[in-house]
Design brief:
single chain, 177 residues, alpha+beta, Aminopeptidase, 8-stranded mixed sheet, 8 strands, 35% helix, globular
Length: 177
């Protein structure tokens, strides 16, 4: 378990899929993540079985220390040990937990895990241009914009860009050590 002041990360568990499922039911969260499909709880359990067998990823529940409550999840995925890089995704599961710094803390924990425990050199993510809160949080954590895939998402009758962001180990070390 890795923790900061308000949140800690622990390996994802099957019971956490209830929180995943609730997040997918929220229209605002689907919009921010570009998610179109609402899944059933059974599909969430199937997803859990699939990801826990995938050796190229590490999935964590984001939990509040005080209440010991799951408020989100994050994944370090497509782990490529040869090229020392991975992808990253994060989701806070309910708007009540937005704008409280929990996501920022969880990202910092993920960076520590990526660069210290996994000894990788690069972490990359993609975020949609309309998710300005997410973009600000990633920049605050040290991610840099590296490219734009123009009009990559068509959602609710509108096109949005997909922004590629990344952080290198040396940038992490300059910021956090």
């Amino acid at each position: 378990m890795v923790s900061t002041n308000a949140v800690y990360l622990r390996p994802i568990e099957r019971k956490d899929m209830k929180s995943f499922h609730q997040a997918v039911l929220n229209e605002d969260i689907r919009y921010l993540t570009g998610t179109r499909n609402i899944i059933t709880l059974e599909q969430a359990y199937e997803y859990y079985e699939r990801i826990t067998r995938d050796e190229t990823r590490q999935d964590f529940a984001i939990c509040l220390k005080e209440q010991n409550t799951v408020i989100g999840d994050l994944s370090i995925l497509d782990i490529d040990k040869i090229n020392q890089k991975a992808g990253f995704r994060i989701a806070i599961h309910h708007p009540d937990y937005f704008n409280k710094g929990y996501g920022t803390e969880a990202v910092r924990l993920a960076l520590n895990y990526t660069f210290e425990d996994l000894s990788l050199n690069r972490l990359q993510l993609e975020v949609y241009s309309h998710n300005t809160r997410g973009i600000r949080a990633y920049e605050k954590a040290g991610f840099k914009k590296e490219g734009v895939m123009r009009q990559s998402l068509y959602y609710n009758g509108q096109y949005y860009d997909e922004i590629v962001m990344g952080i290198l180990k040396e940038e992490y070390e300059q910021r956090y050590k």
